[in-house]
Design a protein that fits this description.
mainly alpha; Cytochrome p450; two-stranded antiparallel ribbon; 10 helices
Amino acid sequence: MISSQRAKSFSSILWKIRRFLNIGSEKRLQEAVGEIRGFANSIVRQKKQAMFQISQEFSPTEPGHSDEKFVTDIVISFILAGRDTTSAGLTWFFWLLHRNRHVEEEILREINKSRVKQKNKTQHFSVFEQVKDMVYINAAICESMRLYPPVPVDVKEAAANDVLPDGTKVKKGMWVGYLPYVMGRMESIWGRDWAEYRPERWLENTGKGKWKFVPKDPYSYPVFQAGPRVCLGKEMAFLQMKRVVSVILGMFRVVPAMEERFDPVFVPHLTSEMQGGFPVRIEQRTV
């Protein structure tokens, strides 16, 4: 939150002064960074110790393991880029599912089909195999992230002078921002029904009772960015979210523990949040 407030400030001079003097929000930021880095560093050291116990041939000077700071940075990247974004996406997904029961019913049908297929398998059925054919869940997740993207705003700095497709000139060092949150709600991109949560807009009926997933242009749907900057963890994120959704919904109902007319507030930071969190009741399915 403090990092995102830096970008929103009218001038960078004030926060740089606070950082130099180590006071106020910058002091709190350094304390938070220290706590996160300490946590990530403990993970790295525990892993190295476990590897050493497994194999006495492990050498502390081996490349890829000796630089604890580098490995710790990678762990922190996974925490920030993977954990926070995935949890944000799933929070809004379960909220939209509650508001659109017909989508939940279609997802349950897909989960049940996968279970039947799994029972008919004589060999080991991997996690990837369990979720790879769940195209409707994939579409439902894409549709929820269209309306509530985990990263609602993104900014790039021009490395060199450039010209945008519409003729706008961008000079080296300039910041160019785009808003996936706004783009996901533009009628010119998604049509008049842009406000409707409709996973079917991502699907094509093959005529055989099966859905085929049809991805959108990443430049119109930049939730995972596009081009050279596309998110490296995109496929892993979908695998994780589809797995979580299929396991939870296959066993439980996720019911908001709030008034029926409650309308959550979207809070855009570096990653999106639901103001006050999303309190729910978990009810076991009987059918």
